[in-house]
Design goal:
The chain is of the alpha/beta class. It has helices at residues 37-40, 43-48, 58-63, 77-80, 131-142, 153-161; strands at 4-12, 16-18, 70-76, 104-108, 116-117, 123-127, 146-149, 167-173, 181-182, 194-200, 206-212.
């Protein structure tokens, strides 16, 4: 069976994956872009942006694992759009005409709408489904490849609580946000089901990888 994977998911030292006050103008609330500066500095990011340069160390190695072997993505409504996006029939996500997923992408929302085909092979499907049912649907669409669980924190927490995640990559960024949406709430003892490894890099972030051992 294909794996359910999480990649490059950044949290603050106090466990917040996004800030407070999310809006169309502030996708991560008061956190701004601070949780993702480590990624923006990598060569991978520069290549995707059409720029030269960027770092080529461990951060770059980790960030490049985002795409290989992925056949579908599941994300929450809060990753797809700002609060209230479902009331805007013209909203097509944050990423412009060619989103970076290039696979069937399943948005978990109570406000469903017809599928939305974008450039580059991304088609957004809007599902009102439980984590297990959404993962089953995504696996069928992935045709034997793995499924990426893209966030946000609430969705990843629900998949972890249901023990549906096989590979979890969390990046701990050395900032304190104090408020927002936390990843780890209600997941006491999670580590018992995983082999956990850590890598700290010169950028100051710590990469935590969880590989599921109990099924």
């Amino acid at each position: 069976m294909s794996l359910a994977r999480v990649h490059n998911f950044s949290v603050s030292l106090d466990g917040f994956a996004t800030g407070e006050g999310l809006s169309r103008e502030a996708p991560f609330g008061h956190a701004g872009e601070r949780l993702h500066q480590w990624m923006f500095a990598t060569r991978w990011w520069h290549e995707r942006s059409g720029d030269a340069g960027g770092t080529s160390g461990a951060d770059d190695v980790f960030v490049r694992r985002f795409e290989p072997g992925i056949g579908a993505e599941v994300m929450g409504a809060g990753k797809y759009g700002y609060p209230g996006w479902h009331e805007d029939p013209e909203w097509k996500g944050w990423w412009g005409p060619n989103p970076p997923f290039h696979t069937p992408t399943f948005v978990l929302t109570r406000h469903t709408r017809p599928p939305l085909a974008m450039e580059g092979g991304t088609t957004f499907h809007f599902l009102d489904a439980s984590p297990s049912d959404a993962l089953k649907t995504a696996r069928e669409a992935a045709a034997g490849k793995d499924v990426r669980i893209g966030g946000g924190a609430t969705v990843i927490r629900e998949f972890l609580a249901a023990r549906l995640i096989d590979h979890l990559h969390v990046v701990v960024v050395p900032i304190v946000l104090g408020r927002g949406v936390r990843l780890w709430d209600g997941l006491e003892g999670l580590e018992r089901d995983y082999a956990v490894d850590t890598v700290t890099t010169s950028s100051g972030v710590t990469h935590l990888t969880f590989e599921r051992t109990a099924r």
